[in-house]
Known about the structure:
By secondary structure, the protein is of the alpha/beta class. It has helices at about 5-10, 25-40, 75-90, 100-110, 115-125, 195-210, 240-250, 250-260, 270-280, 345-355, 365-375, 380-400, 420-435, 435-440, 450-460, and strands spanning about 40-50, 55-65, 90-95, 130-135, 155-165, 165-175, 175-185, 215-220, 225, 230-235, 265-270, 285-290, 295-300, 405-410, 445. The chain folds into two domains: about 40-135, no CATH class; about 145-465, ATPase, nucleotide binding domain (Nucleotidyltransferase, domain 5).
Amino acid sequence: MTTDLVNAARPKVAPPLDPGFRPLALASRAFRGALQSSGKAVPLIIGLEREDGHVSVFEAEVFAPDAEMAGSNLGYLERVVKTLLWQRGAWRIIIDGPRELGEQIRAIYGPGGARAFDAEFMGDVYEHPFTVDVTDRGGVPTARETPVSLGRHLDGCRIGFDAGASDRKVAAVVEGEAVYTEEVVWNPRHESDPEFHYREITAALKAAAAHMPRVDAIGVSAAGVYIKNRVRVASLFRGVPKDLFEQKVQDIFLRIQQDWGGVPLAAVNDGEVSALAGAMTLNDNAVLGLALGSSEAGGYVDTKGSLTTRLNELAFVPIDVGPDAAVDEWSGESGVGAQYLSQVAVIRLAHAAGIELDAGQTPAEQLRHVQGLLAEGDERARRIFETIGVYLGYAVAHYADFYHFRHVLVLGRVTSGQGGLILLERARQALDEEFPDLAQRAALHLPDEAGRRVGQAVAAASLPALQ
């Protein structure tokens, strides 16, 4: 982003522990405002192709190449493309607009480019070489997207398993009622042996099965990308070498399904299950689900009540364009949601708040320590959750440029206890003061305390339909 757009992104509601925060939502709004005032807008269409021929299309405008502010096009468009890529997913991007601008995006995603991580990641997800095609002749295919009918099945005896990067949760659900839930702290991302993951998942399933007369179906909610119940990319398995991943991890849930007699099984990204849990709780559709856990997970139930085949990996969607934005240690990208809406943010901000953390503790234990301080009335801890709440408000405003939602359901470990109430209050304040129209049409929700922690496991149980 150009300096003038970054300067225009100074928020009215400042996060107490991050004075350098510059919301992308405000920078984007400033760009669009200047564009409309200039009379120099030209259309630009972005197409994104993913698995099974699905194509998503996004229409935008940029400055004409001869416009005075044409130099700000690339910064704006690059953030839009990155957001779309992680929101919708693609192995191919098609840019239809000013050719030079499209070629710059192609270079950014090419070998050695600034977004080479994104390109490699998407190539692994969709098992197809990643490409950027550039055209100025209407070469974007027609949109083609098919919703997915998953969830809201409550009949029979079901297991719901929620695999986070700091803890795993399981629920035994009989005719829609959770008869048993369990939470176990674990740290799988550093485990190199895939049998560790298999044993832990199996142990959780057996614990739930012991509280039911039989198992009719298994639903899995897990961080990462899952296509047709196969693991494509997931932070849970980052420690597993690539050869072992291909041999034993990518089909791990198919193996587990066989172990349990071939009962219906569905493995879905945990953000999608967050959205599904919200839609089930609210008895409404058009729900954006945000799970603030070890990282940030996102999911979406559309206006007709269906999940989509879109990626919704909001952990890698940018929300901060400030020059000192936090850098994600996995992708190397600055300002993305994983560093702002997760326990990573709590730990990062603890240092800014002057709270000493025990380096020997797991991230989940460090989060609980901060939450304990908050419960004792520690103002330093309160400022951490106020800061995350401001992040949340401006992130929701950015997401609203790419989703149509009436509700935003926020859950996950970071929202447990008083912290969830504080961050929701500050998020609403940011929306009320900066985006009053959005605040009027979209409501932010927290589930009850049990729902914040194990609600995803219960919703996951509803994923598969019985045969």
